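Annex B.
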Amino acid sequence: METSTLFVFLSLSLFFSDCNFPFHVHASQSNHGTAKFKLIHRHSPELGNFHGTTLGPPSNSRERLRQLMRSDNARLNTITRRLFPRRKNVHVDIPANPNLVELPIRSAADIGTGQYFVSFRVGSPPRKFIMIIDTGSSLTWMKCKYKCKSCFKDRASQHERILNAKTSRTFRPIPCSSNICKQDLARSFSLQHCPRPSAPCSYDYRYSDGTTVLGLFGNETAIVRLTDGRKFKMPEVMIGCSETIMGEFHDIDGVMGLGFEWHSFALKAAKKFGYKFSYCLVDHLSPSNLVNFLVFGEINDPTMPKMQYTELILGVVNPYYAVNVSGISIDGKMLDIPSHVWDIRSGGGVIVDSGCSLTQLVNPAFNRVAAAFEAPLSKFKKLSTSSEGAEPEICFDDAGYKESMMPKLAIHFADGAKLMPPVKSYVLDAADGEKCLGFTSTPWPGSTVIGNILQQNHLWEFDLLNSRLGFAPSSCTFE
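Peptidase A1 domain-containing protein: predicted structure tokens.
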């Protein structure tokens, strides 16, 4: 069945869009089908087929890992800035709705923003975009022109994807005099300058790598294609019309915000499709004919694996999705990691981030994990790593290596659920003849981040209504 065609990076940490007030979401019953987006990994050869991007596979395995590490480091800097100081709790009252939407995901370029794309149409008439999907930001924005007549003039002549908001029948700018602009969007860098009450609410995003994105906020209609073939219109989706982009975003159409905020696409889509979204990530080194998916709604598939569920901590570190971890074990033995490392309310905690590749462990946890691998890794020649932070910290020559020689790692959740990733998800192929542990250290205090490589070959379900995260081993081949 044909699905909608909008590409977006899936990540968890782009914008500073935390919100400091309670908000409520009211759903209406409707007969929407499942919406599914194809996810494309940033290193997929498939991305080379789309004009106007510089995406595609790196030249070799070593460069692939360096790209992922550089992206992770940029994301971690942004996550750290956004989580400290911690924000107030934000409550979302979400009623039930039994519907579903599904989108395919692909992967994205190395700009420190995310790893996956999905395809998306917006505007009237609809315009297709290739965008980053980001579970750590709330605003959906794209290349766009509204006030600026000369914006992207050179790129329009090359048939690049640009929204002309002025001619879209459904675009409605948000006034700068509104409380939404002055208060609600303050954490999304809305500007206080308001030359007249009806003037559009503007924003100025600044990224850690120096990238700047300038534009205005508005409401627009998005269109998704459901798995039963129908097209479904989603009106009043808040978007950012970005007229000026300076820095690394020049070859990217935009970002789809999936973070936990009232104006994010995740909340808007979840309202229509059952307050759930899920994704399943195949091995990032898999053949390109194996596909990842981002799904909105309930997956009704008899082959779907049985889920384990754990608490999803919402509203504490918005827009991130946090979980309640109790510890890490190696071959069934719990490591001696201080309990405060896992406490999200006292400077620690764990977030699930599909935009980071490697798993980031705060120093007290990283040191114990590294010590637990000393004995099994003593059989192999240790290899030196770069001091620039663009490579994993523990690497070895893999002559004679077998997965059975590595201990079994598990992440334990406070309510009894247990994630047991395959060995290939934490002992990674770095280059020919070289393997590395897929963990990097990050300073304490700070948050541990479960990256997308550790999440691979699992189905992940974000149940916003019941504040729970489901996961189960999966080949990701379900329809």
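Residues 363 and 393 are 12 Å apart (CA to CA). The longest strand covers residues 231-246. Further annotation is deferred to the next reporting cycle.
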